[in-house]
Amino acid sequence: MRLGSFTYLLKQGAKNTYINKAMSIASVGVLTACLVIVGFSMLLSENIKSIIGFVQQQNEIIVYVDPSLSADGQSLLDKQIRALDNISSVEYTSKEEAFENQHEKLGELLDGYENEDIFPASYHLKMKDLSLIEDNVETISKLEGIYKVDAPTDVAEVMVKTEQTVTVAGSVVVIALLVVSLVIIMNTIKITVFSRRREINIMKYVGATNSFIRMPFLVEGMILGAVAATVSFLLVWYLYTQIYNGVANDMTSWLSGAVASLIPFKAIAWKLILAYLATGILVGGFGSLISTRKHLKV
Known about the structure:
single chain, Alpha-Beta Plaits, 2 domains, 4-stranded antiparallel beta sheet, 10 helices, elongated
């Protein structure tokens, strides 16, 4: 195809978008609604996983050291614990610090016990991957000088299963919505193409090639997809920001950490606009090509 013809077809596609304003608006509206729903489904899924990740980080293994362990044994145990895999942070509390912490809570009940080993030294370990907590507990329990190991294995199991469920459910919902979006936009474009079937038939009878006929519709579909993507992005940007700010301002202090783990819009803005443009242009263009195929068979 010559450059002049190609340019002409591009102009025709853009012109047809303007001429058929009613159907163009309908197509953009339908695709925008679908993209907004898909976008919020993705954001909801990612934020739920982010909050679950925050909750996982709050769970820790508490390792109590045997009070009778020698200084050399304590030094060796410290090195072994800090060398463990899947541990993101290690916080050591000496028996003296443990006593002071409890003395602040219990007050006079502990007066006179300052020189006795009531509370053992301990390590507070935070994990990188909560699904490996049982392996970590088993490894730590075998170390020499361990008095006791406390770990939220039940909570960890629930958190891991919840994260897996959210990931699978989120993916299924997004894929289903994308399929529904494609079907709806194709049917909308089919109506546009059907209203201009005589124009297509005349062009076909006078010798126009299928590619020549398809190009304006392809351009039209891609333009509609790009417009819908831009409108969807702006809507999601505004609505998500309002929801994010509202939640952040009204949340109580004990949930402030979870709120802080919510994903700010700036962090996903570029990914979202690129995904929207790619989806809108592909759906619009593909829908146009599929919709014109039937009317080219004359």
